[in-house]
Amino acid sequence: MRLQALFCAAPLLAAVVVAKANYPHLPDDLTTPFQQRLAIYGPNSVSLGWNTYTQLNESCVEYGTSSGNLNQRSCASVESTTYPSSRTYENVVVLTELTPGTTYYYKIVSSNSTVDHFLSPRTPGDSTPFNINAVIDLGVYGVDGYNIQNDKAKKDTIPTIDPALNHTTIGRLASTVDDYELVIHPGDFAYADDWFLSLGNALDGENAYQAILENFYTQLAPIAGRKPYMASPGNHEAACQEIPYTSGLCPDGQKNFTDFMHRFGQTMPTSFPSLSPNYTAQVLANQARALAEPPFWYSFEYGMAHIVMINTETDFESAPSGQGGSAGLNGGPFGTKNQQIEFLELDLASVDRSITPWVIVAGHRPWYTSGSACTPCQEAFEDIFYKYGVDLGVFGHVHNSQRYLPVYDNTLDPNGMQDPKAPMYIVSGGAGNIEGLSTVTTRPDFLEFVNDQDYSYATIRFLDANHLQVDFVQSTTGEILDSSTLFKSHGERFVRQ
Ligand SMILES: *[C@@H]1O[C@H](CO)[C@@H](O)[C@H](O)[C@H]1NC(C)=O
Ligand SMILES: *[C@@H]1O[C@H](CO)[C@@H](O)[C@H](O)[C@H]1NC(C)=O
Ligand SMILES: *[C@@H]1O[C@H](CO)[C@@H](O)[C@H](O)[C@H]1NC(C)=O
Ligand SMILES: *[C@@H]1O[C@H](CO)[C@@H](O)[C@H](O)[C@H]1NC(C)=O
Ligand SMILES: CC(=O)N[C@H]1CO[C@H](CO)[C@@H](O)[C@@H]1O
């Protein structure tokens, strides 16, 4: 209300303010697809989400294994959705019964779309080596590098982004696109809720918020439209109260993970049925499946890997972004009491290592970290990780790269990297965003590598059933900043310890 009065009284100011929220140009053809995002949706299926600037009467995708013959067609089972303050509509189509590990060509049905392609998921148990990237805390990029720490001048405009001008991390993900098969991104996308960092946005938060989201997901589309891009939430998806004084100006779309839910709610999978011949494992997997709550917590399988995405923001005891949580964000809950924790236990208990030897759990807030440790997360999750022999924990939230030796209960695993019982942990939060990199202030025990000088991310290489290599990649050059290999014998089929 007050905002509108201000706009009438000061049209000049309004014009300046509106110009600040730099929305991408509207296409003439409103059916043009933007913000494409693939995800692994099932053992033989992939979901494809995209946004349009009009509601489509029918959202469809044509696809096939030859670029010249898109002989299959799949249409949305639900209508495209939007939310207050958004300019766009979210469309989702699921492509099922795909032949595993095969290149598929696809074209979103529109009078203005082009053919792209993806690799269909590898069957759980396929022992072909493959790589994934862990990219966390990734924000919008501008022509001159929007994410330079302490460069206030660069924070003052919301850039319109030409996707061809890919910078640092997104650029590296584009130029290495044949080197990895999927991306995991557990939290903090776009940093649209940081709109208030630019003074020019003060009276135009709603537009600034939406403009940053549109710019970011359009810039990400060349990656997320080519590779399954698996999401779970971070604190920047939660709400407006990151900085308390903005809460009075909170755009509807910014409250309670709204954009995140709309964008990824229909595209992320529920857990898969078990392929184990063990009946108990099948039952446990089905129980876990019923408790999965995508896009907040879920798991999927891919070749040698069972990957669980968790929610470190809400839905466990003293969750930092939950009701009454320490971050003051009051988000969620998204499940019933204890649902996420029960899900995680049942899901991990169901894993048959003779099918998927590697178990990775990825979430946003770390507990082994230099700075900003999430103690409630450690209390909620660490024992479960250990009990079921999680091999690698992947986190972000702290804006740099860190690697820890296998550790449990703040005690180093005596075996180190040679067949430990405890999980190895990494923080891969240096992808780059408006807040810049986080300076390393403390060097906790078990910290083996840390870098707070370079925008970077982690490549996880599944070499075989016993060797997992983790490389930290410098975004600007592609140089490997750190490389380590974890050996696990994986002798037990169902780990309990
Ligand atoms: C067609 O799509 C491209 C983006 O893929 C967009 O830049 C262009 O404006 C669109 N053309 C029309 C006529 O809408
Ligand atoms: C949807 O259908 C209506 C009625 O047939 C038509 O007027 C409109 O142009 C269609 N919209 C799109 C985006 O195709
Ligand atoms: C079957 O799976 C359960 C857990 O899922 C495990 O405890 C049990 O040992 C397994 N049985 C066999 C014969 O492997
Ligand atoms: C957030 O959304 C969830 C799911 O719709 C709902 O259960 C919860 O009550 C909402 N929380 C708040 C604070 O509005
Ligand atoms: C400006 C720039 O570096 N553009 C690059 C973005 O990424 C694509 C895909 O790798 C390259 O072809 C462009 O040269």
CATH architecture of the largest domain: 4-Layer Sandwich
* Tally of separate domains: 2
Secondary structure category: alpha/beta
User: Percentage of helical residues?
Assistant: 10-25%
Overall average residue pLDDT: 89
The neighbouring-strand order within the major sheet is 13-14-15-16-20-17-21
Under CATH, the topology of the largest domain is which? Purple Acid Phosphatase, chain A, domain 2
Q: CATH homologous superfamily of the largest domain, by name?
A: Metallo-dependent phosphatases
Number of helices: 9
Distance between the termini: 59 Å
CATH top level of the largest domain is Alpha Beta
Number of strands: 24
The major beta sheet can be summarized as:
7 strands, mixed
Rg from Cα: 22 Å
Uncertain residue ranges:
1-19, 143-161
EC number: 3.1.3.2
Catalytic activity: a phosphate monoester + H2O = an alcohol + phosphate
Signal peptide: 1-21
Organism: Aspergillus cavernicola
Please name the defining characteristics of this protein:
497 residues; alpha/beta; Immunoglobulin-like; Purple Acid Phosphatase, chain A, domain 2; seven-stranded mixed β-sheet; disordered N terminus; binds 2-acetamido-2-deoxy-beta-D-glucopyranose
